[in-house]
Design a protein that fits this description.
The protein has 152 residues and is mostly helical. The chain has 5 helices and no strands.
Length: 152
Amino acid sequence: MAPNAPRPSPPFDPDDAPTPQAHGQPRNPSADSSWTALLGAGRAGNREAIEALCIRCRPRLSGYVRKHMGPTARRWTDPEDIVDSVLYEIVRGLESVAPELDEGAFVARLFQTARSRIQDSVRKHRRDVGESIDAAPDRVLASSSVGVVTRA
């Protein structure tokens, strides 16, 4: 490649797409108000609102979990079990979520919780089975934010 030639762009991953406000673009006020209303109703215990929150967030959360669990970890734990666990934990603590929390911050909280559940799953497997991580032939976790562990 020539020194001044443009580098090819990496493939687009919608899970890693920045939120519009990250680029300084104005927010969509109707999206904000519908999110606020949905979150408020969910915090009040409205079952339909809680279900709608889960339906709205599940695809992004599932993508995140699949992307950040390595193939070895997926042999131990089904990614959808992690997703269900995260949604259950968030719903249980929904009343403690700040009512003004925007959707991006809420999803970031989901991702943080998912990262912890993935790490917990790996630790539990190691403890229960007594398997050394060095015995696993491929990556256990697929994200450097969670910690890449490879066979030496």
